[in-house]
Design brief:
single chain; alpha/beta; six-stranded mixed β-sheet; five-stranded mixed β-sheet; globular; binds beta-D-glucopyranose
C-alpha cells in the first residue's frame, strides 16, 4: 500500500506538468473576463460588430414572460443531441407550461453533413408525422423554432444562419433565412400548414422558460453540446438597432470568443489539436474549451500523450484510446463521481481495452477533474462578465438576478466550482441559478407566446391610437 501511495505521489508530480497549463488562476480568469467585456462592446457596436468574434446578436425578444401568456404551440428543437418536435400548452390560470406530447427524431450524421434541403425535408417530415399521429394536422398552430446556431435575426421570424457549429455542416444554409427554408420544405410536402413562426436560440428559450417561474430571470446559459448565453441588454446600447427605450435579449454567442486569437495565450497544445481536427477549424474556440462536444476529446488527447510518455498504462495505447471521439464526455462525469468515480474509471478503462493500474485510474480521475474544472471556471468568467455588465448598465451597487441554465455538462457535473468562481469574479452580484425545465421545447413556446402577447397589445394600442 505504501509503495502504491509513493508511486501515486510521484506519478502525480509528473502528471502535474501536463495539467498545469489547464489550471487558470483567479487573476487569469479576471483577465479572461476583462477581454470578454471588451468583446461584448465590439459585438454591440454599429461599426465593429461585423468583425467581432462575439456576435452579440439581437433576438427581437423585448420582454420576459409576465404570466398572462396562454395558448397551444408547436415547438421544434434542433441543435443539441437530438431533434425534437413538441406540442406545448401555456396555461395562464395555473401559470404553467405543459408539454402535451413530444417526439424525438434522430438526425443521422450523414444528414448533419449533407445538404440543407435534405435536412429541412427531414425536419418537415418529422413535424408532419408528429401532427398526423397527434391529430393536429387540421390546426394551424404557432410554432417556436429553437435553432441553436448563430443567426442574424432580422425579425422574430427572419433569421439568417451565420455559420454552423457543433456537429452540423450542411451545405446551402449559411447566409440563408432558416424560417424560409423550413417553410419551403413544408410547402414541398403540401399536406399541412403552420401558423406564425418565432425563431429562438436555446439560451433564449432557457431564459424564457425560467422567466415564467422567476421574473427576475434575465440571463439564459447553456453548457451542453455547445455553450452560449443570452441576457437582457439596454436597447440604447445595441447600436445597430433603432430605439432608445427598453431592453432586448441579446444572444451573445460567446462560443466564438477567442476566434480572433485573443485567447491563444491560454490555449493548450490539446485545444489546438481539438480545433484542428474538428469539422469547423478556427470557429468557436471558447466553446471548444468548455462544451460537451469537445471535453472528452481533450481528455483523450492528454491521456494519449501521457501514455506515449510512459506515464500511463505501461506505455500501451489501446485501439479505442487511439481513436478520435471514443473517450466520451459522459465518461468524465462518471469518473468524477465522488463515491463511485474510481470504480467507474476502472470499468471505463477496461472497456477501452487498457491495461490499467490503480495509480493509472487515479491519474485519469485527476485529468478528468482538471479539464472539467477548467470548463467550469471559464464559464464562470464569462458569466461574471455578463452580470457585471448588467449591474453597470443599471448603475446598481448590488445586483440580484437569476440565471436560467441548461445543458448536459451543467447538469451532470458538480456546479459548486462554477458558482463559487462567479461569486469571486462578480462580488457585487447575488446570483440564483435555476435549472431550466426544457428551455428548448417549452421555452420556445414561451417566446412565441410572449411575441403574440406583445403583438396583441401593440395592435390594441394602435387601434386605440387611431380611434
Ligand atoms: C451555438 C449557439 C448555441 C450553443 C448551445 C453553439 O454552438 O452557436 O447558438 O446556443 O451552441 O447550444
Amino acid at each position: 500500500m505504501r509503495s502504491l501511495r509513493a508511486a501515486e505521489a510521484s506519478s502525480e508530480e509528473l502528471v502535474e506538468k501536463y495539467l498545469q497549463p489547464f489550471q487558470l488562476s483567479p487573476e487569469t480568469l479576471q483577465e479572461v473576463s476583462a477581454r470578454l467585456r471588451k468583446d461584448l462592446l465590439r459585438g454591440l457596436g454599429k461599426h465593429s460588430h461585423h468583425k467581432a468574434p462575439v456576435k452579440m446578436l439581437p433576438t427581437f425578444v423585448r420582454a420576459t414572460p409576465d404570466g398572462t401568456e396562454k395558448g397551444d404551440f408547436l415547438a421544434l428543437d434542433l441543435g443539441g443531441t437530438n431533434f425534437r418536435v413538441l406540442h406545448v400548452r401555456v396555461e395562464e390560470e395555473a401559470q404553467k407550461v405543459l408539454k402535451m406530447d413530444s417526439q424525438i427524431c434522430a438526425i443521422p450524421q450523414e444528414m448533419m453533413l449533407g445538404t440543407g434541403e435534405q435536412l429541412f425535408d427531414h425536419i418537415a417530415t418529422c413535424l408532419g408525422d408528429f401532427l398526423e399521429s397527434h391529430n393536429l394536422k387540421g390546426q394551424t398552430l404557432p410554432l417556436g423554432f429553437t435553432f441553436s446556431f448563430p443567426c442574424e435575426q432580422l425579425e422574430i421570424d427572419k433569421s439568417i444562419l451565420i455559420r454552423w457549429t457543433k456537429g452540423f455542416n450542411c451545405s446551402g444554409v449559411e447566409g440563408k433565412d432558416v424560417v424560409q427554408l423550413l417553410k419551403e420544405a413544408i410547402h414541398r410536402r403540401g399536406d399541412y400548414h403552420i401558423g406564425s413562426v418565432a425563431m429562438v436560440n436555446d439560451t433564449v428559450g432557457t431564459m424564457m422558460s425560467c422567466g415564467y417561474k422567476d421574473q427576475s430571470c434575465e440571463i439564459g446559459m447553456i453548457i451542453g453540446t455547445g455553450t452560449n448565453a443570452c441576457y437582457m441588454e439596454e436597447i440604447k446600447n445595441v447600436k445597430r438597432i433603432e430605439g432608445e427605450d427598453g431592453r432586448m435579449c441579446i444572444n451573445t454567442e460567446w462560443g466564438g470568443f477567442g476566434d480572433d486569437g485573443c485567447l491563444d495565450d491560454i490555449l493548450t497544445e490539446f485545444d489546438v489539436e481539438v480545433d484542428k481536427t474538428s469539422i469547423n477549424p478556427g470557429v468557436h474556440i471558447f466553446e471548444k474549451m468548455i462544451s460537451g462536444m469537445y471535453l472528452g476529446e481533450i481528455v483523450r488527447l492528454v491521456l494519449v500523450k501521457m501514455t506515449k510518455d510512459k506515464l500511463l498504462f505501461k506505455g500501451q495505447i489501446s485501439e479505442a484510446l487511439g481513436t478520435c471521439g471514443l473517450f466520451e464526455t459522459k465518461f468524465i462525469s462518471e469518473i468524477e463521481e465522488p463515491d463511485s468515480g474510481l470504480e467507474n474509471a476502472k470499468k471505463i478503462l477496461t472497456e477501452l481495452g487498457l491495461d490499467w493500474s490503480l495509480v493509472d485510474a487515479s491519474v485519469v480521475r485527476l485529468v478528468c477533474d482538471t479539464i472539467s474544472s477548467r470548463s467550469a471556471y471559464l464559464c464562470a468568467a464569462a458569466l461574471a462578465t455578463l452580470v457585471n455588465r448588467i449591474r453597470n448598465n443599471r448603475k446598481l451597487g448590488h445586483l440580484k438576478t437569476t440565471v436560467g441554465v441548461d445543458g448536459t455538462v451543467y447538469r451532470k457535473h458538480p456546479t459548486s466550482k462554477l458558482q463559487k468562481a462567479v461569486r469571486l469574479l462578480a462580488p457585487q452580484c447575488d446570483i440564483t441559478f435555476l435549472v431550466s425545465e426544457d428551455g428548448s421545447g417549452k421555452g420556445a413556446a414561451m417566446v412565441t407566446a410572449v411575441a403574440q402577447r406583445l403583438k396583441k397589445s401593440c395592435s390594441t394600442m394602435c387601434t386605440k391610437a387611431s380611434e
